[in-house]
Amino acid sequence: MSALANLLQGLGSGGPDHKYSGNKPPVNQRDGAAGSSARRLTSVCLLMVAAALLALFGADLQVYSVDPWQELSRIGLGLVQPSWDDLPSLLQALAHTIAFALLAVALAAPLGLLLAMVFHWLPVRLLCAAVRSVHELFWGLIFMQLYGLSATTGLLAILVPFAGMFAKVFAEIFEQQQPEPVQTLPPVAGALKRYIYTLIPQSWPALLSYSRYRFECALRSSAILGFIGLPTLGFHLETAFKQGHYSEAGALLWVFLLLIASIRWWLRPRLLPLYLLAAIWLLPETIGFSNGGSLWRFISVDIWPTALRQGDWGGLLDWLQMMFSEQVWPGLVQTLLLTQIAVVLSGVVVLVCYPFASRALAGPVMRWPGRFLLLVLRSTPEMVLAYVLLLLCGPSGLPVVLALGLHNGGLIAFLVANASDAEHKSPLARPDDPKGIVGYAYVETPRRFPAMLAFLFYRWEVILRESAIMGILGVVTLGFYIDSAFEEIRYDRAFLLIAVTALLNILVDSLSRRLRRFAHTDSRLAKQSRNTSINCR
After folding, report:
1. CB atoms within 10 A of CB 30
2. How far apart are CA 383 and CA 398, in angstroms?
3. How many separate helices (H) and strands (E) can be counted in the chain?
4. How much is the pLDDT for 191?
5. Burial class (CB in 10 A: 0-12, 13-18, 19+), 71
6. What's the start-to-end Cα distance of the chain, in Å?
7. Is the pLDDT of residue 157 over 80?
8. Mean pLDDT over residues 94-102, rounded?
9. Gap between the Cα atoms of 183 and 320, Å rounded
10. What angle do CA 457, 458, 463 make, to 5 degrees?
11. Which of 472, 388, 422 is nearest to 16 (CA)?
């Protein structure tokens, strides 16, 4: 995971500064290892593609008889001619989006660091796995029942799952550090001193780079919290799209795109204290209630079925059977099918898009249009893409698959292109390397493929969480039933469905780790990171 964090520094720095080190093993050893690794990679890829092809037969990918071209032309015109008439409201929504993201990450990162120090405790690992497996929007729906449309709801919705993510990644970064500095400490030194004097200083560049990347993720999460009513950019986007005000929507999208693209210039460590004070001042006012006075009733009464509270075990069994047959099973199946198709589509998008952003393949000038395309794809939240595609394609799983494939494919293609640029004109590159389509097929793609596959496996769990939450838009995944349960104030149903979603994410994460280990993609990614050290700027 530290290898992943090192490569993710490209997201925070905007480009690679690289060095190279290491000696190659003998040719016969490389050939044998390469043959074994290639066979494993091929097996895993064929398994994933076969699963996606089978999923096509069961997923709801119906294309409705709509004429999207008129609507698409209006959306395109809105992007070309954005409206800045209501600039104060736009800037206020932007300020709320940044405030939620900045404060949540500022609180979640130190909390995750503390949890990472005791991550070897099983209860801590289980707690972190549980909280990070629930999407931020689901946390937002939960906290909204307690704190209303308040700043507390927005902060906790991002802070809680992000703390679990920070804890996991930071703990894995610590595990990858060299043991020699720790061995220099006296035996009586406690665990806290080992972290403060050795592990944290060793890991600091990776910790910082991952925190920057997680802040970008927090901006997207903060934006889509508007879809459940919080006053961020997503709220104004949804309103503009529903009312057909595509010029206003275009202005909002451009502002968010510029916000993501300019992070490397305005996110400066020395300015963070000032930013945090401004973020506290910019938090939105509370709409409704905010005292959380019903917290005890919510966790002790509301989320548990009536039959369970009354000790009616037969009634509880009937309720569970009803929930499984009518909501859990249909939502679970569609979530898994759409996820699998989206994972494979993401890989296809990577293979198609990364060469247009790579210096080695597109050239130093022509790569910039490709990099701009990848910036748009990775910066636009998946839910926003899905919402637009739903307007064009109708209410089915097809817009969900396309949105997830485009966003995650754009993100991974950006990282793969950065890695390609880092090795450009390096000892790994030879003057007689073929160019064009031959270089793409026989040089660049074989070098990038193991790392690309590792990134896909890392994103598998994320894609599953996003597939579930797309139910809020009307697609029949687990999120559809969760949103309906909250609307009907049936918190027991919502709690069961969220628990199923969390368990499903944990299982997929475990399967992803096993497949990465089987295909040796993590070791390839670590080697690539050692050969390509990216400094934060």
Report:
1. 11
2. 13
3. 27, 0
4. 76
5. middle
6. 21
7. yes
8. 95
9. 54
10. 85
11. 422
